[in-house]
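Exam prep: given the inputs below (a chain plus zinc ion), describe the expected output before reading on.
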Amino acid sequence: MKQHPQRPARVDRSLRPHHAAERTVVALIVLGMLTLFIFVRPQQPANMTGAEAAQAILDFRDNMPDASTAERIGQVTSGAAAADVLEVLGANATDAAAAVAALRQTGLVDRKRMRPGTALTAYFDESRMEGEASRLIAVSIKPNAKNTLLATRQADDSFFVSVLTARLVTSHRRAAGMIDTDLQTALVAAGGTPAHAASFAALFPDDASLAEGGHRGERFDTVFEVAEDERGNFIENGELVFAAFNGVTSRGSWYRYTPGDTGRTEFFDANGVAAQPFLTRFPIGRAPINSGFGQRYHPLTGQLHLHTGIDFRAPAGTPIQVAGDGTIAFMGFSEGYGRHIRVRHKRGYETLYAHMSSFAGLAKGEAVNTGDVIGYVGDSGSATGEHLHFEIRRDGRWVNPMTLELPSGRNLASDPAELAAFMKQKAEIDALRGATIATEVATAVTVLPVMQPNSP
Ligand SMILES: [Zn+2]
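Solution:
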């Protein structure tokens, strides 16, 4: 494609009215006023003369799409970018690039986020040919189920983008049943998703077999969010809001709730008590942190690398207490970590303790409980001084022990207002387990779509 001067593209996702939209609104108000005048018959119209009102209606007509507007529809695919599609539909390269640049500024039009085969509609003013191409006056595209974007050409030839967000209604659905082959199959058959099965299994960590599919005959009950448009058309499945399990080794009910004070969403039992934290972040108490998690320059090699844990400064011999219940998965020596122990916990978590001076006489495979002393701080392996290097891994990946969200163990009963709000929400979920309610959660931001730009 040739190089073209960049034209300014404006994007507005707030309620800044488009000129034509503004005039439409004015015209509608005027029409409303005229109707009122018919019934009220004032001697003198308060704000506007009849001539002024007639002029406003004429302006309104000026903004209706005229007969020479042509609409052409193309498809954006992995092989055809939006700008190319516009050119194929008849736009010149400059207009195509300007319209697409404006659309992209919304952050909604990139190939990763758009569904393959997304339709794009281009509107042309056929009465004004520009060379061999028709004059592009507007482009509309629906990159996802929720949003429709409309880029309209402005007097200065830039494109102004309006984002139309569908009013989504969140309703709830229940999926309940019995495991036949495995949890995921049963939940999907009942209307849930594989993601719901994973969230469900994580809520019952005492049953290690549940993540693997559970046992035949175990019963589950779930309620999850479903996004629908105003006509009740399904848009997408949302989060699990309730999970009950009656299994061989584990049973219970969990309700999702977001306390108003912390804003932190987690699951609470029927009495409003969150799951207990199963790990601590501080295996040697509140020791000073020498080095945090993340990218850093290695103190010995000088190279930038990921620091996979937290370094707690402490004198040699300080006892190290295991961060949670689990079993010792590794105990031994390596060049980097020195003398170290890796412990496997529930929910796919592991913790690792490195640079120890000595172990506390345990063995691989042995069960340990939160707070058990497993070894002592030292500087074995590649360490610049005496410290504990502590790691947490989730499903084999390093996570930041300081920012990791762990269950809080919070009891809502200590805050009556919070408990009442929780109980109200719980009652709604319980009621749903027989019926379905809908609550409106999202509302639209935007400007009216206007097909006709303010051409000079
Ligand atoms: Zn470290």
